[in-house]
Design brief:
single chain, 698 residues, alpha/beta, Chitobiase, domain 2, TIM Barrel, Alpha-d-glucuronidase, C-terminal Domain, 3 domains, eight-stranded parallel β-barrel, six-stranded mixed β-sheet, 23 helices, 34% helix, binds beta-D-glucopyranuronic acid
């Protein structure tokens, strides 16, 4: 009995063996192994070993039963999976097993998956399914796999009610919510069950099921809605996924009728403790809370003269007796600033608020930091907060939903962006990548293996809705897939992950399908960047169309505070220490020097850090304005070529899917053309510099 995940393991292997006409035998600890003659190819034997059975005995290698080991090798040989009932302490070359870890061994014609817990076994079985025949081929290498980050979370920005402008899912581009309909949690959660299985298969193990902007209806999930939340948790649990809620910091007032939400007030503390008690009485393995506080109008501790550590610890102490965690977001800035005041800089805000609080957060608080200092733009430098808080558990937050990257109308495969973020060597003299920071792994230069190295995890905003294809644009499914796989293994090659997704999504398809999808998707993030905002400048999206399409000055003179500062002479934001906002100084060396100096600042981030004349020559050899002209025009040519490429797949993929992608590509070409024409004209009119290529400018 390995719990609900153990039962899922049995279901999964039963499903897998049945497809091939095989059968499943489950052996209890100590039960005799079947003899070789009775086990056929495609059969699967699940050996539930007792702890005593495996401890210290050479683990994986020892598991194939001698009877099976005598069988001649066959490409479809039986798979033997072994689970133990707890931590496995193994010798003989197999390290201690963490709960998510598994080892896959190919020995004497048998494929063996060994894990120390049901979750690891589940991940091992999904790995075998992903590999297909390859898992049964000749190979004498033992594969040990485990995730780097302990928490791999998806946040849903879903509301119960439907907002007149935003719809039901804030920044959602795939229809309504899979969780809620008709003002409550859905009666039929079968879609959620399919989603849970999907998440288990890509290694995601945590889901927050409501919007970080917590409106009154959703706030009540924490109290009146608990039975419904429990139903959702029941559906996620068997796939190793824990359920979290976004909560309002003002809950004691809004839900509890108290006159304050002050963290120092004993009644407030008691209210949260009682709330947490009720949650855990209903959902014993509840994950915890996600909190957006003092940000974009959400309530928070500032109202009471307290800081974010006071606020986060209040909730953490309520969750602590139950083992829950607070994911406290670092997305805090003043969204009501005076655009005329050139000293204000939104990029500085998260660091200014949080870096001084390092060491003050309880150890069941994870600070959730957006990957860039502004807001999920197509290109941003990595947030310096991630390097500034060594005594705080940190999680990096990505955005799978394509808010700023084309609303799932545009093909924009984000795997390469996230890969860059996670592998970026931010700390310890450019040796410690972001994925290590959020996993609590010390840098290679660290000689402190006993110090406080707290782990947080990887989180992201989900892109899923009740749309027929789950993600609006069918190809946006690849982003969900890549997110899970990269959160598991940040070193993975994003194009190889895309290839995996293509193989699993279009099994047995004509080779042209794979080829064409690579043509469209491999570099689609860079193509999107090339026709939208240039050289790291950020925000040029239209506020009126919910961050879709161009509007160069859309935010330029607004209180939200994101500026490109384009004038007749130049463009970009001076964030240097010497003459600008000082943001570059928030980085550790060598990055602060790299970004501070025009000579070393990389082209793709130039306008994020510097205000330069239009004639400034990039490392690429082009002037800034010529780059603006050329890259936009070239990228539109690329997108236009995708329409014909996709057309050649007609009849080779499902017709409805083909039609949906074709329709979206038409819109992508229209929108990319609009970006090109507006940006080229805008900067021609601002600068007066003609396009050296002679292409028309309107
Ligand atoms: C911004 C979105 C907004 C979110 C906010 C957040 O426009 O809808 O509420 O991020 O992350 O990008 O809280």
């Amino acid at each position: 009995d390995a719990g609900p995940v153990g039962a899922t393991v049995v279901d999964e292997v039963r499903r897998a063996t049945a497809t091939h006409g095989g059968s499943l035998t489950v052996l209890a600890p100590g039960e005799a192994l079947p003899d070789a003659a009775s086990v056929r190819s495609h059969d699967l034997v699940l050996v539930v070993a007792s702890r005593a059975h495996t401890r210290g005995s050479g683990a994986a290698r020892q598991v194939p039963p001698p009877a099976l080991a005598e069988q001649p090798p066959h490409p479809n040989d039986p798979l033997v999976a072994a689970a133990t009932d707890g931590a496995l302490v193994a010798t003989g070359g197999v390290a201690d097993f963490s709960p998510d870890m598994f080892v896959r061994v190919r020995a004497a014609g048998t494929t063996v998956v060994v894990a120390g817990a049901a979750a690891g076994l589940l991940y091992g079985l999904h790995d075998v399914m992903r590999l297909g025949e390859t898992a049964f081929g000749d190979c004498d290498i033992d594969v040990t796999d485990l995730p780097v980050a302990p928490v791999r979370m998806l946040d849903h920005w879903d509301n119960i009610d439907v907002h007149p402008v935003m719809g039901q899912v804030e920044r959602g581009y795939a229809g309504g919510s899979i969780f809620y309909a008709d003002g409550r949690v859905r009666e039929d959660l079968s879609r959620v069950a399919a989603y849970a299985r999907l998440l288990g298969s890509i290694g995601v193990n945590a889901v927050a099921i409501n919007n970080v902007n917590v409106h009154r209806t959703e706030a009540r999930l924490l109290t009146d809605g608990l039975d419904d939340v429990a139903r959702v948790a029941d559906v996620f649990r068997p796939h190793g996924v824990r359920t979290y809620l976004s909560v309002s910091f003002a809950s004691p007032v809004v839900l509890g009728g108290l006159s304050t939400s002050d963290p120092a007030d004993p009644d407030v503390q008691a209210w949260w403790a009682a709330a947490a008690d009720r949650v855990y009485a209903t959902i014993p393995d509840f994950g915890g809370f996600v909190v957006k506080a003092d940000s974009e109008g959400q309530p928070g501790p500032f109202a009471y003269g307290r800081d974010h550590a006071d606020g986060a610890n209040l909730l953490a102490r309520a969750l602590r007796p139950h083992g829950g965690t607070v994911f406290w977001r670092a997305f805090v800035y003043n969204h009501e600033q005076d655009w005329r005041d050139r000293r204000t800089d939104r990029a500085r805000a998260a660091y200014d608020h949080f870096a001084p609080l390092d060491g003050r957060f309880d150890d069941n608080v994870v600070l959730q930091v957006k990957y860039g200092p502004i807001d999920f733009q197509t290109r941003e430098p990595i947030s310096p907060v991630l390097a500034a808080m060594p005594r705080t558990r940190l999680a990096v937050e990505l955005q799978v939903t394509q808010e700023y990257t084309g609303h799932q109308k545009h093909v924009c495969y984000l795997g390469p962006l996230w890969s860059q973020v996670l592998t970026f060597p931010l700390a310890d003299d450019a040796t410690r990548p972001v994925s290590w920071i959020v996993s609590g792994l010390p840098g290679p230069a660290s000689d402190d293996d006993t110090g406080f190295l707290p782990a947080g995890g990887v989180t992201a905003v989900s892109n899923v809705g009740d749309d027929e294809f789950w993600t609006g644009h069918p190809l946006a499914q690849a982003n969900l897939y890549a997110y899970g796989r990269l959160a598991w293994n940040p070193e993975a090659d994003p194009v190889a992950l895309l290839d995996e997704w293509i193989g699993l999504t279009f099994p047995g398809a004509d080779p042209r399908v794979r080829e064409t999808l690579h043509t469209l998707m491999d570099d689609s993030w860079l193509t999107y960047e090339a026709y939208t905002a240039p050289l790291g400048v950020g925000f040029m999206v239209d506020p009126g169309r919910q961050h879709y399409g161009p509007n160069v000055d859309g935010y330029e003179y607004s209180k939200w505070g994101t500026y490109h500062f384009a004038d007749r002479d130049g463009i970009g934001v001076d964030r240097t220490v010497a003459t600008g906002t000082g943001y570059a100084g928030q980085y550790p060396s060598p990055w602060r020097e790299t970004y501070e100096d025009l000579a070393t600042c990389p082209d793709e981030l130039l306008l994020f850090f510097h205000h330069v004349p239009y004639g400034h020559v990039l490392h690429s050899g082009k002037s800034v304005v010529q780059h603006i002209y050329d890259s936009r025009a070239d990228a539109v040519d690329v997108v236009t070529s995708w329409v014909d490429a996709w057309q050649t797949l007609h009849g080779l993929v499902d017709d409805r899917l083909h039609a949906r992608v074709a329709e979206r590509l038409t819109e992508q070409v229209r929108s990319a053309t609009e970006w090109r024409d507006q940006l080229r004209s805008y900067f021609f009119r601002k600068s007066g510099v003609p396009d050296a290529s002679g292409r028309p400018i309107y």
